[in-house]
Amino acid sequence: MSRSAVRAIAPYVAGTSIEEVHRRFGHTRIVKLASNENPLGSSPLALAALRSTNRLHLYLDDAYEELRERLGERERLHAENVVLGHGSNELINTIAQSFLDPGDEAVMADPTFSLYRSAVSLVGAIPVEVPLRNGVHDIERMLAAVGARTKVFFICDPNNPTATFLSPALWSELFERLSREVLLVIDRAYAEYLEEPGFDVARAIRERGNVVVLRTMSKAYGLASLRFGYAYGDRESIGWLQRVRLPFNVSRPAAIGAAAALDDRAFLEKSISLNASERARVTTELERRGHRCYPSGANFYAVTVPMPAHEAYEALLERGIIVRSGDALRMPGRLRVTVGTVEENDAFLATLAEVASGASA
Q: Which of 29, 229, 289, 344 could disulfide-pair with 85, CB 3.0 to 4.6 Å?
């Protein structure tokens, strides 16, 4: 029999795949806007580097000192301030294993990225979930939820699934008032899409300490299949994570692709530019039609629909458009939709109009 903590958590459910929709409905043209992937594909420099990858029969350099130094330099930090992971998802589990004992508490928003809750629960700690306020982290109530047993405080910014983000004033309040005895974990998987960073990573790490900032190359760099994540933090926090993480947790192809992608400024800028223009265009049109979107700082948005979210999701799926139902993300009444290409976004808008008109008929 498995541990009670394992039996209590629900398995992670990924977005519907293109293959599954093809099997169910036979569509040959399918638009996937469900998993917040880069619609432009992957960094060309990363793809070129991967085509020349060899020595796969050898164990890899587990330290990746040079790559960690390069990542650190981007935030005026050093290799000792960086830990690598099999995607940032693995680092979430590593944080829970490193800092939480059974009975400890971790404060987080509701809804937010579901892996925080499952990682905390799996080690026997207690997730303390604070409802969002108008789709945004309620910093006042989250700070009020911190108690004697609180060891970790999670912030997802931009938040998944709402795409909302904290203002500089809220960041200042959080840094000023949260006890430095509590590990502050800031998940910035979508940081590249933010117009304003909100806070300075290096300053937060140097002045506050006890901070871990999660990053990934799955989104803006288009390397989701490689599973390459990393985190910045103070030397002590990163040292504990380095002790607990699995040896050889980052593959050689992932490291090679990530290193090459760091040099691909043209692809990154093109991805950010497309996302900004299309996000503004699509959400403006949705608002004009009477839908409501939370302000988005990511490459997706959360939009209301005039029917139960799962019904809208299924109706779109039947027509070859894959999104995520808010019902599955603790966000009833809304869909989470990735910002795609112009053509993909137009297909979504047209199909949603058809679905919405059927609901109101």
A: 229
| Domain boundaries defined on the chain | 4-42+266-360, 44-262
Nearest by Cα to 340 from 123, 25, 34, 100? 34
For the whole prediction, is pTM greater than 0.70?
yes
296-321 tens-digit pLDDT: 999 999 999 999 999 999 999 999 99
